[in-house]
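Q: What would this chain look like folded?
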Amino acid sequence: MIIKTFIEPPIDNNNYLLIDEKTKEAALVDCSAVDDSILEELDDNGATLKYIFLTHGHFDHIAGIRPNPDIKIFMHKADLGWLNKVNNFMPMFGMPEMSIPQIDHFVEDEEIIKLGETDIKVIHTPGHTQGGVCYYADGSLFSGDTIFRECVGRCDLEGGDFNQIVESIENKIFTLPPETVIYPGHGSRTTVEWEKEHNKFL
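A: My prediction, written as structure tokens:
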């Protein structure tokens, strides 16, 4: 699987383009901004974007979504409330209001999504939000705002719960192989092994 990282405004979100090397089917993990470089990357690889996988419903992870019947949007149902309030937050960051996207599929814990010949596992990790999920494939975990390098997602917003996020990380993320590479929603990559040893919040 090919993984490409795009750092997007307004608050430097990491969006990840995943491309199945055999079928050239592609998915975008989170969609923070309209980014022509993602389209160029798809063209360069002869790939077709089929899915957008949302890690949660906060505005900075969904602000770049535009209606396209050929691209299916996946999210956990518990974050619909955040999705529906997206335009309460966009003006605060000088961004225009957006059309609230329709979710085509509500993911569930341990569900397997097929991206070409690549299996992508959904891991429900509530704590930052109640509908927060990670996506796991080929030894890589796309963690959204659940865990960062030596840090965890904030839990002071509606639906946040610090004890819950710690439980999600310890019981779900830390059970993955230690060499698993974590691709967070903000900041630099890390690994399960590193976070077990160095994350002061856990």
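The chain has a mean pLDDT of 96.
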